[in-house]
Each structure stands twice: as C-alpha cells, then as structure tokens.
Write a structure and sequence with these properties.
Strands 3-4-5-6-9 form a five-stranded parallel sheet. 39% of the residues lie in helices and 16% in strands.
Length: 223
C-alpha cells in the first residue's frame, strides 16, 4: 500500500486521482474485504479496476463490493475476475452473475482459470492444462446459458518452452516437470499450451458470434 500511495497522482485537468504504478489495478481474493485498506484505496482512484473472487464469494457481498468500487456504474470501470477452480464454476458462478445483473450493475466478467487449479506434484507447484481448460469451458458455458457476456480470460503464460504446467499438447508429465521449471512464483503455460488455449477460446468466441447472429436473423425473420 505504501508503494501504491507513493505513486498516486492528481490529474490536473480533471481533479481525479490515479495510481501511476499501472493502468489496470486489481485486488486479490485475500485483500478484497469491504472494510480493508485495499478497497478504500482503490475506490479513490480513477484507474480501471479488477477484483478477484472465488467460490467463497457471497452474491450479496459481491453486489456491495461492485457498488463500492463503481458507484457511478461506469462501463469499463470494473472487472470481476473469477478464480474458482474447475469443479466450482458451474454451481458458484451463476448466482454471482444473476445478483450483479439483478442490481443493474455493469461489470466485465473475466475468467482466471489458473489460480483455482494449483496443486503440488512431485515437489513442484503446478497446474494441469486439462483443468485450466475445463474452467474456461465452464466459464463460457455459464455465460451462454445466462445470456451474459464472457469478457476476458486471464492466463499466466510464456513463449518459452518451460515445463511448469502438466498436460496439454506439449505433454508435460510429473517426470518432466523438473526439466525446465524456471518460474520463481506461479507456474505458467508454455508456448504450446498457451497456443492450444488461445485456439480453444477463439473457437468458443466464433461459435458464440455465429449463435448470436443466428438468433438475430431468426428474430428479424419473425418480424
């Protein structure tokens, strides 16, 4: 917090305050308490904001959090970044989406499929590509069912041929995790895994676009 406060400046043309350490600032699952310093700081700056939520988030609390960080309900101001784990999205995300929509709040829904799928394997902190992919798939499915917009996907990845996440087309196994495990923090998708994920997201977006176009054409025909 001291670092962020030191880099906060007032815009002389608008009188708004901005945290100049970055453009898009986000608050984590462990620091999003309504009565804590992080939320108090973030609601006072004009940057676009994100807030990460897990399967533990209560729908009513999320609505209050959204209204606190974006009281003017400005489009583009706030992203809700979902990090629930592949097993929880289908049950836990719909109540959150419905609550926010019911309150008339405008947010961008973003999927973080990495942090909810971390596990130790062979002494390494890792993630399984198939579970990361499953969370992205569930995220798209929920929004398709509710008629809402899947606004983004947040991935930790690298163009290097690392062996930090299991599975995928690069076929990283527990026996090969140590071959090129270079991260000092969180395991990243390697180039092959990242491309595989990008192609999957592109297919989902294309299918969504075609479905919406078909629905629009059907309504026009009926009219």
């Amino acid at each position: 917090m001291n670092y962020e406060e030191a880099l906060t400046r007032e815009d002389s043309t608008t009188g708004l305050w901005y945290d100049c350490s970055g453009h898009f600032l986000w608050c984590g699952e462990r620091t999003r308490q309504l009565d804590a310093a992080h939320i108090e700081f973030l609601r006072g700056v004009g940057n676009p904001l994100g807030v990460k939520v897990s399967d533990k988030m209560d729908p009513a609390d999320l609505v209050t959090l959204v209204q606190t960080l974006n009281p003017a309900n400005s489009p583009g101001r706030l992203a809700v970044i979902v990090r629930m784990g592949a097993d929880n999205v289908r049950a836990k995300l719909p109540p959150l989406v419905k609550a926010v929509a019911g309150a008339g709040a405008v947010v961008t829904w973003v999927c973080d499929p990495m942090h909810g799928n971390t596990e130790p394997v062979a002494g390494f902190k890792t993630r399984r590509y198939e579970r990361v992919r499953a969370e992205v798939e569930a995220f798209f499915d929920v929004h398709d069912e509710l008629g809402t917009v899947p606004g983004g996907v947040h991935l930790e990845m690298t163009g290097d041929d690392v062996t930090e996440c299991l599975g995928g087309g690069s076929d990283v196994s527990p026996a090969t995790l140590a071959d090129a495990y270079r991260t000092q923090c969180d395991p990243r998708l390697n180039a092959a895994q990242a491309l595989e994920m990008a192609f999957y997201v592109a297919r989902r977006l294309r299918a969504r676009k075609e479905r919406l176009a078909g629905e629009k054409a059907a309504v026009a025909g009926a009219a």
